[in-house]
Amino acid sequence: MFALINFSYLTAAVFFILGIKGMTKPATAVRGNQLAAVGMLIAVVAALMHQQIISYATIIAGMILGGSIGVWLARRTAMTEMPELIASLNGIGGAASVTVALSTWLQASGAGTTGNAGWTAAILASVIIGSVTLTGSIIAVLKLRGTIGETGKPRLWQILTLVTLLAVIGGGFMFVSGVSVSPVTLFALVGLCLILGIGLVQPVGGADMPVVVALLNAYSGLAGAATGFVLENQGLIITGSLVGASGLILTAIMCKAMNRSLPTVLFGGAFKQPASAQGVAEDDFYAGKVKYATPDDLALLLDSARKVVMVPGYGLAVAQAQHAVKELASQLEARGAQVRYAIHPVAGRMPGHMNVLLAEAEIPYDQLKDMDSMNPELPQADVVIVLGANDVVNPAASEEPSSPIYGMPILNVHKAKTVVVVKRSLSPGFAGIPNSLFIRDNSLMIKGDAKDVL
Amino acid sequence: MDLFILSFTIFVLALFVGVELINKVPPTLHTPLMSGTNAISGVVIVGAIISAGSGGLSPGVASVLGFIAVTLASINIVAGFLVTDRMLNMFKRKA
Question: With CB atoms 3.0 to 4.6 Å apart as the test, which of A73, A288, A334, A408 could cross-link to A397 if both were Cys?
Answer without folding.
Answer: A408
